[in-house]
Structures are given as structure tokens and as C-alpha cells.
Amino acid sequence: MPYKILRKQQLGTSGTLLEMVLETPLIAKKAFAGNFVLLRIDETGERFPLTIADYNPTEGTITIVVQIVGKSTKHLSSLKEGDEIADVVGPLGNKIEIKRYEHPIIIIGGGVGIAPCYPQAKELKKAGNTLYTILGAKNSDLIFWRDKFATLSDKLIITTDDGTEGIKGFVTDPLKELISKEKISLVIAIGPLIMMKNVTLITNGKNNLPFVETVVSLNTIMVDGTGMCGGCRFPTISGEFHFACVDGPDVNGHIVDFDNLMNRSIRYSTQEKISLDRYNGHCRSVIHLGKPKE
Mean pLDDT in the chain? Predict the structure, then answer.
């Protein structure tokens, strides 16, 4: 069955981030923090994963946040409210563990990773936890959902690479300060691989800082989302392989071999560029030539 786009809005002014609300009553009924969905825009499209950024069982909707980086996300961004997506499969992946922790939890969202932090913050706050939230991006225009996190957070810190908002620097700067000053029960980091790697290097108990349990969310290449294809497998520092779709996407950050995973994540970069160039060329020709011939 097709899935209708009920609402669509741009986040910021860069034009690279979109928020979409999809009509998915069965998925919304089962969705929980940590879950993701697999989308296929039409019958010729690829399947690609997006973490569920919010869910409303009463309304029968889920929210996704899309960063426009390649052919499929650009195609998705071209759809309008009322348009339909061919396939939305989910909820997939494991739910996060929800319990009351003794000490504060630090939630770190980097770039588009801010979105999947929100349902985790919402459920953990509902369980009575103290939350410190760090949101980071290259610039202020890429920071979003400030008000949502301000409502949930006992402390909200914003960092930008260029200093256009909050602290000039990286999310790891306030993280170091927080864990050096008080006991922290858990760190959750969602964002670019290099950011999550650097977070785990700070919380691994070395560098004269205390060890803190750290969970990261892996958005790897996926096809089927059920552990069958093996495309999402990720290496651990002990040499084992796990699958992000069924063992995650949230996993113990201290076991992940991030260097290996970063190399794996770019193995189709040439094909992705070719696909995007072909899509852009097709769009330009349609605009220039008008309606295609029958």
C-alpha cells in the first residue's frame, strides 16, 4: 500500500534538511525510540533506511527528517504534501532500553542525527531521568528542534563549528567538561561516524577521564533490514561482525571499529555520485525540454 505525505517543511534555510510526516497507522502503533524504517519511493527506487524521529499512534503518523545528499533523498525531497511513497517498511531495529538511571544521561545529536535523538530523549525523560542534551552542527542553520529539546532537557548545550550559535567548537568539548565534573550514567551519541568515534574516545576511561557507558546509532547501508543481505554488517574491535539492522541500530559504541566502518561506508561513493549526476541530468532535461514524448 502507498503511504501519504501529510506534512512537509524545510528545516533552516540551507535547503538540505526536510521534515516529513507520513501516514503510517500500523507502523505508528508499534514504533518506539531506536526504531527505523526502510523507504522505497517508487517501484524503480532503492531501499534506504531512515530512523524514526517521532511517532503519534493516535494520529497514525511517523515523522522523518531527511538530509538531501544523494539521488534517493533528492527524489524524496521533490515530493509534495499529498504525494505517496510506494513502500515504508517498519518499525525495524531494536528499541532502546528505557529505565530510571541513577545519574544524568547525556544525549548528543550531530547534524541530522539530532532528529533520532528526540524520541530517545522523550522516552528517557518520561521515565524520570535527568537529561543533558548537546546539539552540534557546522553552523546555526543546521541546528533544529531547539524548542523540543529545551522542553525535555535539564541542560541544553549547542555547539557550532563556525561559532554562529552556542559554543564554537565540537560536541566533544562540552562532553569533556560535563563528565569531568559529575557522575554520568550514560552517553547516547547519534550523528556522523567521526563524531560518534570521537565521543567514544572520550568516554572509554582513558585520557584522564572516567569511563561512561556509551551507545551509538549506526545508519549503515541496508537492503532488506532483517539481517539477510549482510550489507549493514559492521566490525567490532575484537574482529567480530554484527548487523546494524537486527543487532542495532543502537549498539555499544566502545565495541565498534569505527575506522573500518568509515572505510566501508564510502565503498559505493562513486556509484552514488553517478546515480545523482544522472538524476540531476534527467531533471534538467525535463525542465528544458518540457513534457516528455509519449
Answer: 90
